[in-house]
Amino acid sequence: MSHDAKRASHAPPSIGLTLGPDAGHLQRIAPLFELVDHFEIAPETTWRERGGELLRNDYFDVFGAIAAIRGKPLVAHGVGFSLGSRSDARQARWLEQMERDHRELEFAWWTDHLGPTELAARTVTLPCPLPYDRETADEVRRALALMREVVPLVGVENSAFYVSVDEPALEPAFLHAITEGGASHLLLDLENLVLNARNLDYDPRDWLARIDLSRVIEIHVAGGDDDAEWLPPSSRRFALDSHSHAVRPFLFELLGEVLPRCSSLRAITLERIEGTVETHADVDAMAADLAKLRGLVARTHASPLHDRVTDSLTLPTRSRDGDWSERFAACLSAPHDAPIDLEGLALARSEGIVLTRLLIQKLRFQRLQRGSARLRTWFDDDPAAFAEAFRAYHAAVPSTALFPSEEAAAFEAFVDAR
Amino acid sequence: MMRRRWCLGAIAVSFGVPLARGLAQVSGDAPPVFASTTVLAEAQRRALRERRSLVILVIPDDATERRRRGGALGLFLLHGDTALRERVAEAELVAASMSSVRALYPQAPATEPWILVAHPESPATLVPVDVTIPPRPATSCTRRGCDTTREAALDGELAAVGRAFDGALRPLRDPSTSSARLTELLREPIDGAAWATTEGCGVTVERVPAASDMFECGQGAVTTRERRFLTWLVPTAP
Q1: B37 contacts B96 by C-beta, under 8 angstroms
Q2: How much is the pLDDT for B140?
Q3: Residue A262: how many other CB atoms lie within 10 Å
Q4: DSSP secondary structure, B119-149, as one string
Q5: Tens-place pLDDT, residues B19-51
Q6: What single-letter DSSP state applies at residue A272?
Q7: Residue B231's pLDDT band (boundaries 50, 70, 90)?
Q8: pLDDT at B205
Q9: Are strands A240-245 and A223-225 parallel, antiparallel or unpaired?
Q10: How confident is the model at residue B24, as a pLDDT?
Q11: φ and ψ at A339, to 5 degrees?
């Protein structure tokens, strides 16, 4: 069958929206539910921990109900399987819960971010960049194979990074090595691509020209913050993966260019994080973005399609020092102003490492604030003292906690012992 | 637990507030609607799965109205016509505020009806049901019993709520389990609400809320609170 004929037999990609674990947010975006064909959730945000056991929090049923009542499928976009690091205990735990979730919610597929969120036994939460070599690609393939035992259709997303371990130009080949053979798929996050290109200095169109898009099952679009103004004074500006704004026109441009090449595409999802939709104007802007996506998809399917095969997808084979992940994890988990010693490991400018460190600390702060009313009150009443205690805690106690209550208990114990 | 009718002035179903406050204490600054939306979603899924009608007892925003409706619905559920209550018990019963209802059903009415019913053949369609009851006279009880005016008013409430359910509900589907279901309904709290007892001085609410301990994401998103934290963490930042 010719490609055109094959594509013509496919339904157009569905248009979807992320659901965030916040009741007020869900109420505000409820008018958009009728405008989409599917919903996407981060399943881990419906998990909680009690006595070491993973349980569900209340949002599991909320998300399930929103989808069930409208008869629309749910897509899972994980944030914690830690693709690319050997995290056997964590991944075994994840698989058990994934199986339970999938049994009830019947996800159309499950994707996760490229890059470990646990690195050398440290919880970093932010996906960390990987070396783009054959050995690491095999590790990601192994993890995806584990996921496939639970959910038949799985994929990996190109993540947002503020630091790179390898030449960013190798990333397309790396993603190809992960997905080649057809067992796993690619989630192309155009916003991540655009902000990586800006933060790591390359042209997103060059990147797209080098990647095989035939494995793309889903595309993400979003709008992010243009600058992290809370960074230490620096000439360097960074775009942030914040999912907090309307989609930029340039992203729609890129989407229009890649759509004809994505022969396996099943869905396009608009990502928007809870806490960033406050007004009717925000909701209207999201509705407009969804309408643009719908229009773009309709026009693309009306046009002749030309799949494009990329040229060079060769990935280097090389061996790294056994302790590279330990050194990298220690560097990224250090206080933001600690000396940077990544000789031979990272290509990033120091500002990218500082930003990554701060985001890892921000995520740890998030856990503390959610995990303890006492800590929330303390921060409200005396942010200087709280920040000072946090600085000491972060420097002294490697992060291993996954859930807020666990992190808060560790912090409170640390503070009480001082 | 046997609750006798002459005690009705001291027994009510309490909607929303005690439960929401309990959850808000445990889960931090979660708004009250958190509890209401999640329990509604859970009930909705159960109703869909078991192909039963979903009956939503609407939690009014106004505290006085909440007590009034809670009292009348509690009165009916405890002391109404048994055959009718068995039909109620066969449905999936849940209490929720209209803001929670609208989060899951954007087409829900803009008003605040007493009850909303969704039948299994059209689960997305909510049928509003209203009840009209006159204000209750003040309690006037002595050792010899309560005065007849109040008794008559309570009879009127029972009848009004009963008529509303009678018009809204399907006939009993499985009589063999109806009695057990009713017993269960009265023993356990109705999801989204709590049974409460007042004896003239304060309210005793029966229910223990559950906590939530969410996994973090929002990797590159920085909220106002987090920005404040980062500003303190990096004192040189503007």
Answers
A1: yes
A2: 53
A3: 24
A4: -TTSTTPPEEE----PPPPPP-EETTEE-HH
A5: 222 222 222 223 333 456 778 888 998 999 999
A6: -
A7: confident
A8: 47
A9: antiparallel
A10: 21
A11: -60, 150
Residue closest to A268 by CA, chosen among A305, A293, A246, A300: A293
Contacting residues of B for A61, CB less than 8 Å apart: 38, 41-42, 45
Instruction: Please answer whether residues B95 and B192 qualify as being in contact, where contact means their C-beta atoms are separated by less than 8 angstroms.
Output: yes
Residue among A55, A74, A71 nearest A63 (CA): A74
Tell me the Ramachandran region of residue A380: left when phi exceeds 0, alpha when psi lies from -120 to 50, beta otherwise.
alpha
Q: Do A48 and B212 touch (CB under 8 A)?
A: yes
Mutate to test the interface with A, among B228, B229, B231 (most CBs of A within 10 A): B229
- Residue in A45, A48, A386 nearest the CB of B217: A45
- Rounded to two decimals, the ipTM of the complex is 0.87
Handedness of CA B147, B151, B154, B156 (dihedral sign): negative
> For residue A278, how many other CB atoms are within 10 A of its CB?
11
A414 CA: distance to closest CA in chain B (Å): 18
* Best CA proximity match to B59, nearest among B99, B93, B24, B30: B99
- Strand A118-119 relative to strand A122-123, pairing: antiparallel
The helix or strand, by DSSP H or E, that contains position A189, with its residue range, turns out to be strand A185-189
Indicate whether B8 pLDDT > 70: no
Q: What pLDDT does residue A300 have?
A: 85
Angle at the Cα of A39 (from A211 to A125), degrees rounded to 5?
Answer: 65
Q: Give dist(CA B75, CA B97) in Å, integer.
A: 20
